[in-house]
Amino acid sequence: MPRAAWLAALSATAACNAVSGVGDLHFGAIGGGGSAGSASSASGTSAVGGGGGSTGAGLGGQGGIGGRPFSCDAPAFGDPTTGHCYLAPGAVGSWSKLRTVCQDWGGDLAALSSESEFVFVVEAIPGTNHWLGGSDDDGDGTYVWSNGERWGANNWALEPGKYPWAQGQPNLGNPVCLQVKLGAFDSEQCDNGNSGLCERLPEGM
Which of the four, 42, 137, 172, 202, has the lowest number of CB atoms within 10 Å? Predict the structure, then answer.
């Protein structure tokens, strides 16, 4: 997608959120602290393996998915069109530490497995780096989502260096984990210190 079209999509999402009330987001801290780490790595390109997944979010209050009521209580936030909740916890740490924080909340690190979900979340979260649920344990460019969703639905995020990947991403050669950085997918050493983004699915999904 051309960057101009992407920015237009972000603006449209923000306008929609303002009408629906989603734009009034809240962020809180759960879990412990941690030391922040640097985030620098060499660039590289490769085919990004995988295949597919679902999208999600859910705002507190009335409504539901498939007739089921759902809620997404503050400090979490959600997308009223799906039913998944998101939380940007105050904890800082490694990928595995933030995954534990998310699991303690009842979810996992977020799997932004479609363009619509990516646009919604990037528009909503603060500008700092956040761990997501993707990881490449072999350093060969093949990513998986920690919550079991399949990577790459509708060819999403399969082309290195192209939207939603940052230029020169993903890195290759070493095990890496996925973060969202400056509104793009970016690979980073898994033991570096970052904030994280959690995602929780509605009950029964």
Answer: 42
Residue 73 belongs to some domain of the structure: yes
Q: Identify whether 151 is part of a domain.
A: yes
Closest CA to 50 of 158, 154, 134: 158
CA 152, CA 158: separation in Å to the nearest integer?
A: 6
Per-residue confidence at 74, pLDDT binned at 50, 70, 90?
confident
Dihedral sign (CA 71, 16, 124, 122): positive
How many domains are contained in the chain?
Answer: 1
Peptide bond into 2 cis (omega under 30): no
Q: Report the C-alpha gap between 34 and 28 in whole angstroms.
A: 16
Contact, 45 vs 160, CB < 8 A?
yes
- 180/59: higher pLDDT: 180
Residue with tokens 């460019």: 141
* Tokens at 35, concatenated: 């030391």
Domain of residue 63, residue span: 30-200
Task: For the chain, give the number of residues.
Answer: 205
Note the pTM of the prediction, 2 decimals.
0.68
In a domain, 24, yes or no: no
H-helix or E-strand spanning residue 102: helix 95-104
Is 108 inside a domain boundary? yes
